[in-house]
Amino acid sequence: MSQKKIAFIVQRYGREVMGGSELHCRQVAERLTAAGFDCTVYTTCAKDYITWKNEYSPGESFLDGICIKRYPVDKERDIQAFNTFSDSIFHRPHSAEEEIRWMEMQGPSSPALIQSLEEESGRYDVLIFFTYLYFNTYWGLKRAKGRKILVPTAHDEPALHLDMMTEVFSIPEAFIYNTTAERDMLKRYFSLDEVYGDIVGVGVPVPDGPSESTIPSRYGLFSPYILYAGRIEEGKGCGTMIDAFLDVRRRFPDLSLVLIGKKLMKLPDHPHIRYLGFVPPDDKNGLMAGARVTVHPSPYESLCMAALESLAVETPILVREGTDPLRRHAVDGRCGLYFSDSADFGEALSLLLKNEKLRLKMGENGRRYVEDNYSWEAVVDKYKKVFCHLLGT
């Protein structure tokens, strides 16, 4: 098994690419490489998921011992035109040709990647596609040869209900799900009962001891704060979170909201809303550990690595109730609370801020939940089991 050749197909790849599914793919590729597999990544030259602008150089390169094969995107995405067209076909009857057009507009459109994958896929024992949603997955699944695995990283969104997705979910010979909630949701819409699948997710390192307690003070954080980590945009629920925070601050005037990650929306000019940009991983762990709570307001998630990272450093989570994978983390791990609106947000946050015993107990539960369910050893073992199933070894 140690000499098997594995191809990963993902829309973006690189240390600078911090999107959930892309980072997920990179971490799995690195761990499987460390476990003795020969891994190659097929991806584009894009760094930004809004425009798909070519920023990396095409051709082969190596990153952490993994061969990266990059192909140019043939046209950048006009996000406004794409969003307008998406709204149109999501809410009216439409043709198969319009869905193909939607996929081309979705991107990243890279015919060169698909052609190379079609020509070279026979070299690999297994091909792993990350994320069901994009051009490279749709056309790659159709045209590549060999044994194919899909890591859907799916949530219940309008694109999932396009007719073309029935084809996407009919091709793979195995599925790797992030959570039970994701698997159950997908089985409601697609015929997957007879196809091999496992709940795997992603590994989350658990620190050996407490994170460096001085890290928050290095960033000028001396009063209680809650933290959000991830893309800062309306689509992730950040506007709702900020409005709810400003409302609950009336009860906790010393409380601050700290945001880290890429900023894609305007933030209020407020002394208790702090944007720190990108921070090093160790600093992120320290900032999470120093937070009273981390908030995860996105209505669409299949796993949420930031939530698991928070739990690994014993900080409870506050999540949106309608986002089933996140709600299940909180409930199954007894490590957080959930909210449906601003009033719920305020009540849940108030409870966690006032009841330190409850908050600390949820933190302990969260660390145990991550250790039991999201260790890298368990993740790599589950990938090996999928390979054995497909290869008959």
Q: Would you kindly provide a written description of the structure presented here, covering whatever features stand out?
A:
- The structure is a single chain.
- The chain has about 400 residues and is an alpha/beta fold.
- It folds into 2 domains: about 5-205 and about 375-390, 3-Layer(aba) Sandwich (Rossmann fold); about 215-375, Rossmann fold (3-Layer(aba) Sandwich).
- About 40% of the residues lie in helices and about 15% in strands.
- It has helices at about 20-35, 80-90, 95-105, 110-120, 135-145, 165-170, 180-190, 215-220, 240-250, 280-290, 305-310, 325-330, 340-355, 355-375, 375-390; strands at about 5-10, 40-45, 60-65, 65-70, 125-130, 145-150, 175, 195-200, 225-230, 255-260, 275, 295, 315-320, 335-340.
- The strands form 2 sheets. The chain has an 8-stranded mixed sheet with strand order 3-4-2-1-5-6-7-8, sandwiched between helices. Strands 11-10-9-12-13-14 form a 6-stranded parallel sheet, with helices on both faces.
- Strand 6 (about 145-150), helix 6 (about 165-170) and strand 7 form a beta-alpha-beta unit.
- Helix 4 (about 110-120) packs parallel to helix 5 (about 135-145) and helix 11 crosses helix 14 (about 355-375).
- The longest helix is centred in the last third of the chain and has 18 residues, at about 355-375.
- The chain is globular.
